[in-house]
Amino acid sequence: MNTVTKLAPTGHAGPDLEELRDFVEHEAELLDARRFDEWLDLYCEDAVYWVPAAHGQPDWTSHVSLYYDEKHTMKTRVTRLKHPMIHCQDPPSATVRVLSNFKLESVDDTGAQYCIRSKFIMLEDRMGAERRLFGGHYLHTLRREGGQLRIAQKRVLLTNCDQSFPLLTQPF
């Protein structure tokens, strides 16, 4: 039996965990299908996509990151990923992301911004390259804008973030 957790400040309609989970799973499906423009549209204009390169890294200014992209940089990354002559994606990677253990971490005072944590595993296959496996936690900060959920921040906490990763091209 599925249970839906509702959490909200007094006087605000609460998010339901199922809606938030469905949104995060939809994001993963878009990435797996290489629908990068639609994926990018899920993000707020002031969004940040961040993958720390150290365990416990408190922010992106104190230590180098594997990814730190604001919306403009994300657009550039998507343009490169879609380019027919991107050498590190010839042939393109096939990915699958499996998500689980969704937990609502917090709701802001207005009831319009939510932090949801989940666990993930991402498998990346590309002909002629070694299979790669990534895993860790996602921390999505989701915001309601115009009645729709959007991603304000996505932080990816890789279990092996402190290792060397040649040719990281696929967003986690």
Describe this structure in words.
- This protein has 172 residues and is an alpha+beta fold.
- The protein is built from 3 helices and 6 strands.
- It has helices at residues 17-32, 36-41, 71-82, and strands spanning 43-52, 65-70, 94-107, 113-125, 132-145, 148-158.
- A 6-stranded mixed β-sheet has the order 2-1-6-5-4-3.
- It starts with 16 loop residues before the first helix and ends in a 14-residue tail after the last strand.
Concise account of the structure shown:
The protein has 172 residues and is an alpha+beta fold.
Work out the number of β strands: 6
Uncertain stretches of 5 or more adjacent residues:
1-12
Helical region count?
A: 3
* Secondary-structure class: alpha+beta
Distance between the termini: 30 Å
Which helices and strands appear, and what pairs or packs with what?
Layout: H1 17-32, H2 36-41, E1 43-52, E2 65-70, H3 71-82, E3 94-107, E4 113-125, E5 132-145, E6 148-158
Parallel strand pairs: 1-6
Antiparallel strand pairs: 1-2, 3-4, 4-5, 5-6
Q: What attributes does this structure have?
A:
single chain; 172 residues; alpha+beta; 6-stranded mixed beta sheet; 3 helices; disordered N terminus
